[in-house]
Specification:
13 helices; alpha/beta; 10-stranded mixed sheet; 10 strands
Amino acid sequence: MKLLSIAIPCYNSEAYMEKCVESLLAGGEDVEILIVDDGSSDRTAQIADDYAEKYPSIIRAIHQENGGHGEAVNAGIRNATGLYFKVVDSDDWVNKEAYEKILSTLERLIRGPKTVDLLISNFVYEKQGAARKKVMQYRHCFPKEQIFGWNDIRHMPKGKYLLMHSLIYRTELLRESGMELPKHTFYVDNLFAYEPLPYVENMYYLDVNFYRYFIGRSDQSVNEKVMIGRIDQQIKVNKLMVDVYNKNNFTNKGLRKYMFSYLDIITTISSILLIRADTQEALDKKKELLEYIRMENRGLYSKLRHSLFGRVMNLPGKGGRKVSVAAYKITQKFYGFN
């Protein structure tokens, strides 16, 4: 059995996927690389097959009809044989030295007395044209290089949250969680970083800059204009996260606090994008989203509305919306939103 399965969702990725795959080959025989061709119309499928032929004991090519990023991740989880599972998007890559430390740490942890459900590492925003690279690190939030639980987490500022890029889950935990990411939907990486968490008991934080998250393509899903154009999909994911929150009892205080905080961030992003769309239809959608939350869970609705972000995002009138946008630009500058 492999130590780690890595899924690479690929859709028309011929221009950049080889850089991603080459960076992952450094893991050698401990790693299974699953290149998931999600119905591409360019040379992606051929590149995947060429790699699988060249490295038959490491790489598998999976071909499917186009189902979107979430369905590609689902296919990766279904086909994974490794003890742990990670997603690396086809336009991103990993750091070799950090990769080696990740694998040696996983190897040591599986021989230890406790099962580790989630390994967390840092990621770097590889923003095109930026002279200084922003690192998302957690050294002041989590105990370093030791097994810990939710109640051991220190204060996590609003800008510190776990994204798909930070996470390596135990594969069986993902299956036990029953997570099935929706097809043809962008922004499902937020569900991947959210829905399995109630099943996580033990974590381990390795303070290495492992994942390199590329930002800069004009068609990229996190480009703000693209996000506004796909706002219905952002809202869909937001509602699904509300559903996840509602179905869990959260007997663990630390877990409940984190799950609320993440939902608060996502609801804020949905709200501000709807404000920035600057149409009556968008403002109606913002109202409908909040009404959905209120109908599903009045306590959660009240808590979200009275959070700092909730208050700033719901100031009345045009003047209030200007304040909201100004606040958003500050968070964008400090935390790298979008």
